[in-house]
Amino acid sequence: MIGLYHTIMGLPRSGKTTFLAALWHILDAGETDTRLVLDKLVGDHTHLNSIVAAWRRCEPMPRTSIAAETVVTIHMHEPASDQRVILSFPDLSGESMERQFAERTGARDFVAGTARAGGIMLFINADRGHDGITILDVAEFGGDALAGEIPSPQVATPWSPSVVPEQAQLVDLLQHMMRPPFERRVRRLAIIISAWDVVGDITLTPEAWLGREMPLLDQFLKTNAAVFETASYGVSAQGGRLDADDREPLARQVPSLRIRCVGLGVAPHDITAPISWLNAGSDR
Description:
The chain is of the alpha/beta class. It has eleven helices and eight strands. An eight-stranded mixed beta sheet has the order 2-3-4-1-5-6-7-8, sandwiched between helices.
């Protein structure tokens, strides 16, 4: 059976490296049941071993630049369906995505990867500041701003991608995938909301979080449902914060059981569930 090739998207600090460390550990350790099982790993074992070691010790992930990385691919299969899948991490730093937005060019490897049968995992970090303000936010401060009484402009700072709201960058990147050189077709898109442990509200679903925190991205995906078939997952790949109060209790837990994954029909520790969902509809 021909395997599926899923690709990873995400801006810098969106949680891809921590996800990779947790995924590799849970597949390799066999401490809990998962929908997917490991076949083999292709890529830089040295770098992967270093991030997994840090993850197991509940230490911050080593930071790497795009120049220092090699592509890591994990080959897995799903025993229930015998479906083969390859998950590729081409840029853990997220710099190529940010550069694609800023320079309006697509990385050749990324374009080629998305042309294969398979889906996409899009990473968003829940542990971040407000993604810009709206007119409703301004209204909370009174009517002066709405009436045109605004402060004198400050000295302009040079433009950079970092000043553009994250959801605007993500919408732009997804729009790129709807036209050449990308192949236009229906794609499955698993939205991974990382650092889910900071959300706090156990009644909040990943879909509701996306609509509340990233309404522009949420509306874009709903409007383009004929192009992107989506499912959202809340993932805490580390299991909690790494500050002094939380780190020691985390380190005492069985590593695989620190992982939390929230989504429709998902077992609580099965971080492979979003990949399995991609498998179910990506071979069309």
